[in-house]
Design a protein that fits this description.
mainly alpha, Glutathione S-transferase Yfyf (Class Pi), Chain A, domain 2, two-stranded antiparallel sheet, 7 helices, 2 strands, 59% helix, globular, GST_C, Glutathione-S-Trfase_C_sf
Length: 155
């Protein structure tokens, strides 16, 4: 019940920024973007170029609408498993297409946008896509995920 006061959606995550007038925000991608642009003033984990910020938003919106809904359902709804696995493969193909041309999604460096994809990506690779050769079909995607998973911030 107390969480509903902070987040009417009732889900996690929710943050309260005690350093910024008790600012409250919910939704993982909104939180990632907030932290990146409020606290990463040097642009170590975000991008400073205004056009790159729009690229960051493009990928965050894709993560929220294309990856999150399908990857999460791929192991829970038995009647729809095949459909969701095909959606996962489609998202993997989009990411593979981008990552076969560049090392990172935005700004030529590892950013919070790359990190936003990793939890669902790891779940899909570990459980939703069993008996599926992701390394063969998505080598750039797998290389990218391995680089992110080896970073301390991803652990």
């Amino acid at each position: 019940p107390g969480h509903i006061k902070l987040n009417p959606n009732g889900w996690i995550p929710t943050i309260i920024d005690h350093k910024n007038n008790e600012f409250t925000l919910w939704g993982s991608d909104a939180i990632l973007e907030y932290i990146a642009y409020i606290y990463d003033t040097e642009g170590k984990f975000s991008v400073k170029d205004p056009l790159e910020k729009y690229k960051a938003l493009q990928w965050l919106f894709f993560q929220a609408s294309g990856q999150g809904p399908y990857f999460g359902q791929s192991i829970w709804v038995p009647l729809d498993v095949k459909r969701y696995k095909n959606k996962i493969k489609r998202v993997f193909s989009v990411l593979e297409s981008a990552l076969s041309k560049q090392d990172w999604l935005v700004g030529g460096k590892y950013t919070f946008v790359d990190l936003s994809f990793i939890p669902w990506h790891n779940l899909a690779v570990e459980s939703a896509l069993e008996n599926f050769d992701t390394l063969k079909d998505y080598p750039a995607l797998i290389k990218w995920a391995e680089k992110i998973n080896s970073c301390p911030v991803a652990k």
